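Consider a concrete sample entry:
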Amino acid sequence: MRFLAPYQSTILSLVRIASAYMFILHGTTKAFGFPSAPQYPLEWMSIFGAAAALELVGGALLLLGLFTRPVAFILSGQMAVAYFMFHAGADNFLYPLLNHGESAVLFSFIFLYFAAAGGGCLALDRLCCKKD
């Protein structure tokens, strides 16, 4: 039963685009208070400012499928660091639902997959990085 196999690359691209869009929303919330109010005033020269910059720039590159593999690898690491620094406590390390780290874990593994699989057929990488 491989009825979706012909669409694998397109589905990969759609998952990449949807994930990048959700990731960008985290950055716009931190940086601009949109679509929800930020939890704190953003200092760009802080760890939260660096996270917002990575979410905005990295998310946009991922959305376009440009430099997909290296960008996804960096963002995967960012999300792993976010989970271990801000969510995983000694008492609830294995329970991301309890420590509100489930999105960080999911982003980390999804981005790790993009680092390995690439951006799919709808990525700009395919246009600018064609091999002859």
